[in-house]
Batch of 2 targets.
Target 1
Amino acid sequence: MDIRTQLLAFIQGELAKNAPDVDVASDSLVETGVIDSVGILKLVTFIEKTFSVKIGDDELLPENFDTLDDVTRLVADKAG
Amino acid sequence: MDFALTEEQVLFRKQIVDFAHKRLNEGVVERDEASTFDRAGFMACAELGLLGLPVPEQYGGLGLDVVSCMVAMEALGYGAADQGLAFAVNTQLWTCELPILKFGTEAQKQRYLPKLVTGELIGGHATSEPGSGSDAFAMQTKAVEDGDHWVINGSKTFITNAPIADVLIIFASTATGEKRGFGGGLSAFLVDMDTPGVSVGRPLHKMGLRTSPTAEVTLDEVRVPATAMLGRKGGGAAIFNSEMEWERSCLFACHLGAMERQLERCVTYAQERVQFGQPIGNYQAVSHRIANMKLRVEMARPMLYKVGWLKDRGERAVLEAAIAKLYVSEAYVQSSLDAVAIHGGYGYMAEYEMERMLRDSVGSVLYSGTSDIQRNLIARWLGL
Ligand SMILES: Cc1cc2nc3c(=O)[nH]c(=O)nc-3n(C[C@H](O)[C@H](O)[C@H](O)COP(=O)(O)OP(=O)(O)OC[C@H]3O[C@@H](n4cnc5c(N)ncnc54)[C@H](O)[C@@H]3O)c2cc1C
């Protein structure tokens, strides 16, 4: 599974479960509240474990996690 | 899995306990009654190196790993009857020095860390507001960019160390428009307390931890240079979360030390106090209460040190820190109630110190995120 697909599955299954109206693939995850202050920590913990990358606390900015594409880019840059 | 402390950790622990007995405990009942901060004790902590535990040597600190910091804090909690003073030390370390160390520019580190380590400066952080406590990110304090400055307006409450502070890390919304909360963009600023527009209210009279001064802080058109921003614009939430992870482990290690001391006091008391011709410790109602106190200490320790161990490996410990914080704080309150009960009427009297420990313990289920908030976080982690 590629990075985007794994991230999509995680966000849909874990973070957006109670937000059926949100299109995780394209909507702003921050504005819709799918990624909030706890959600971001859950997502980062998942990313670090799954992709064996490190995300610095100084990178935990809303703009790096706003859309699935943003998160995918962040992970891909590190994994690459 | 290795549960043993290193030789250095054992020695440092003993040094801190001996130091606390000698330098921090005299007059604590009176200080508590008068809500007085022990500045001399604070400076003595600095001399011993306690204010620089995790800070690298280049900034005057000891450069210790997380587990060693926790050992030191547990020793301080065990040795120091003045838990308010210990609280002030913890506040300085985990909510002021650590964020500067982790997120600060070199210039910010050079400017603040050496003086915070020596106690020349006192610091803290200000997140809570009258309208936003648990929902910290809903804060109303706002920072607006004005050329190469930021102008901050708002009010903060329950700020530990504020009446004695030289610098506070102030969290403010830097969102443009009406957006609030995590996505709105929170930022952190290093604000010197003598900046025009900063005012500190009267010290708040508290139930416990009275020797640790607390106050409201008002920010009225406070103008700080762009270089006062800590971390990046919008990075405030990450700074806050990072602080909380440290505080939930190291501050609560201090509480664990206090629980150990309380337990020892109860064992001694139960052996010495005679009623109906026997030491009260012979009665199962008393001895089981003490057994439960021991159980809590032994359960709390591995939970806490696991957080330190994970952090030393460079791993995140969000869930583990929440679990440890929740457990230790609730155990601390329960054991403090038990300690009062075991001491009977004497437990209720200030001189015996059990009532103060109970009052001191209650704040622990509130600050660093209430118990409810920890349970919310744990539940979220479990997918609920
Ligand atoms: C001794 C002490 C020192 C402190 N020092 C500082 C400091 O230095 N800097 C600083 O910024 N702050 C500090 N605080 C403030 C502390 O962080 C807040 O008190 C805490 O976050 C709770 O906020 P609140 O008091 O506004 O309570 P509220 O958030 O109003 O909570 C009231 C009650 O509602 C519950 N509740 C709220 N929301 C939820 C929810 N979503 N789910 C379930 N239950 C909920 C809470 O658990 C609590 O029982 C300090 C507090 C104390 C007691």
Target 2
Amino acid sequence: MAQVESRMLDPREELPGLVELARQARVDVLKMLNRAGSGHTGGSLSAVDILVALFFGHMRLKADDPCWRMRDRFVLSKGHAAPALYAVLAKLGYLRPDDLMTLRQVNSCLQGHPDAKMCTGVECSTGSLGQGLGMALGLALGMRLDKLSSRVYALLGDGEMQEGMVWEAAMAAAHYRAANLTAICDNNGLQIDGRVAEVMNVEPLGAKWRAFGWNALEVDGHDMEAIVSALQTAAAHEAGPSIIIARTVKGKGVSLFENRASSHGVAPSDHELKVALRELGEVPLG
Amino acid sequence: MANEMATRLAYGEALVELGRRDQRVVVLDADLSGSTKTDLFAREFPQRFFNMGVAEQNMMAVAAGLAHAGKLPFASTFAIFAAGRAWEVVRQSIAYSAANVKIVASHGGVTVGPDGGSHQAIEDLALMRVLPNMVVIVPADGVEMKKVVETVAQVQGPCYVRGGRIKSPVIFEETYQFRIGKGVCLRQGKDVTLAACGLMVHQALAAAEWLAKERISAEVLNLSTIKPLDEDLLCQSAAKTGCVVTCEEHLVNGGLGGACAEALGERLPVPLERIGVRDTFGISGRPDELLEYFGLTPADIAAAAVRVMSRK
Ligand SMILES: Cc1ncc(C[n+]2csc(CCOP(=O)(O)OP(=O)(O)O)c2C)c(N)n1
Ligand SMILES: [Mg+2]
């Protein structure tokens, strides 16, 4: 590999830095959604810590070369959490901060669900649940053929695990011993119509994934140190694919939205934004 | 009825009424009951409502099984997942076996809006129309949706009904009688035929008003049943006006425009223009912006009418 001059984000931020980045990302997510007037608040906020841990605490990326051949890849299988991904991509410098405020507008690179054709840093277009893990597996197998040491990460929702395709991909990834693949489940216990346990139970998730031949780890999805350490453990597991089942709170960080199914697909109003920003320690200027 | 109503809400309300009258009615949804409005039925008849989770393919297979057990299943989710994700299941388990399943999908077309292209079904009518045994209906407004729900419950066999996300103007009187395979002439004219379905019926009526100011007399047909298409009504109108513009919130391929082109090509070749999305996917934006972006406004229809008349 030609050693390029660019800065590789490795080793990454220290823990306090990651926690602060996540706070800022939540602020961005809320502002973007408020500006857009629609979108998915709950599932974006529950995924923020995981995304920050991944992009700033674990993945091999280059800040000035989003298309670096050796980069690790990320697939947002739960595509509706796009605002959280966009906030992180902006922090990486892959998007301009101004772009964030165009979310969901005509001709914006920030489509309601991630569109790889239009947005730097989005590896695969998603939005239809259940398909991301299969694409991530394809990336992993392709890169293994090319003898690249890159790893692939996919973030799935717990409701999303009801899709049969998730289990088809799970079976195939174990069968092909895709050790360069790590799935993460944003296990917030909620989907659109209510509690996952009541709509269509997916538990016990750990036992299911283990039965499918995966190395399954369970962590607190809002404990930055725990997430980063689980990502390292998963990467060190060479026998096959790993999944990190991250226990999360839908709407995390904003009590107005925490643990409410109703926060799934509604953007914060102006008033809610104000209350939320205050709670996140964001002091309005002037 | 209010002068604006989303067809999905009309569906939810009609389903409750139907459920009260007909014990065979069961409803399935895939974690979108608040959006498809099947939650209204779920609240009143929890025993006859099955939330299948985010699992559209299985939902369609289970619906087929319920039909084989003598139930009258209505299966609902967004159009892109009902017709797209579950297509081959719908083909094998529902259409192939002529199972008595009513698929009523919400969120058809680009007026889904800001969720973007991944969620805007612009190919569902084509996907469903190619299936033998499948009836395909796109109600123009809330009144027609209610009549459609009542009607499809009375016929045996698979139906696909498409509703929309946004509120749209009510066109029909409560006394309107819907019949499968029968279009309706909403406005008589002699210079050009505007054949429309769904939300675009309103757009076509508005275009006809605009054309009238230009002394162009447009006939407006509501062809809500895409399959079987009311070819007789279409051809009668085309014979009179000599040209046709189709209007749909769908790709110009395979849906209403495709169906009309096929019928006219075989029976009465006349100049034809198709208003719809052209070989591209949807994007995020407000519904009104997207109608403009994709050329689905009354002005676009009127311009197409002028073009098609010049080709007579
Ligand atoms: C195939 C498919 N079916 C339905 C939807 C609509 N939908 C969007 S989010 C969602 C619920 C997902 O729940 P979960 O995976 O738990 O997400 P989270 O709680 O993290 O937001 C549904 C049904 C979709 N996007 N794709
Ligand atoms: Mg969830």
